[in-house]
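Tutorial, part two.
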Amino acid sequence: MNLLAIETATESCSVALLCGERIIARSELAPRRHAELLLPMCDAVLAEAGLARSALDGVAVGRGPGAFTGVRLAIAAAHGIALALDIAVVPVSSLAALALQAPPDDAAILAVIDARMGEIYAGTFRRGSDGLVTALGAESVGRAAELELPRAPAWNVIGSGWATYAPALRERLPAAPRWADGACHPQAADVAVLAAPLLRAGQGVPPEQALPVYLRDKVALTLAEQQAGRAAAKSPA
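Running the prediction step on this input gives:
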């Protein structure tokens, strides 16, 4: 299976190609340069694998939550590539992809992304026996000091929300986190890992059904953004 993954919901712009059991990835912390970097990164991972776009079986995309512009860009690019190739899209939570980077232990995982304006995007997860993560509840956006968590004896915390709001988040936890890292961002390689079993199970969706998740507001892709993504995707591989 050849699966291209895109994740641009935060300051990190990343692309990954799952080619059989091999993952080829590109990632760069590049605020405001995602549109410039994204398609060249796609071409680079395909070139390294020796694949044309026509060899892709699906496109996975980090569907948010995150920065509006970044989420829109990822969804538009995924739409364009999938429509041009008539393949499925697998939307994946950017918070779940972030949570996958936490240590593989039995602690619950709190994934938090700085949402600006004094708020965080938050999701809670548990790691399964397969090494993947499943949600413990609905994702949310709000003030760190008002975050509601499910019961769990131990927590690992990951994401930029911890770097910005650690004191407030500590007050919401039952004890000090077992592990915490505020420097991590969602990565396309983890989007690919989470999406692969879904694609194998036939749970990809037509491109037009792959929708962004913003949490804060209901914001749709503009027609111009959709057309730009489709046009870019039709460029030669």
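Residues 170 and 192 are 31 Å apart (CA to CA). In part three we will examine how such features are distributed along the chain.
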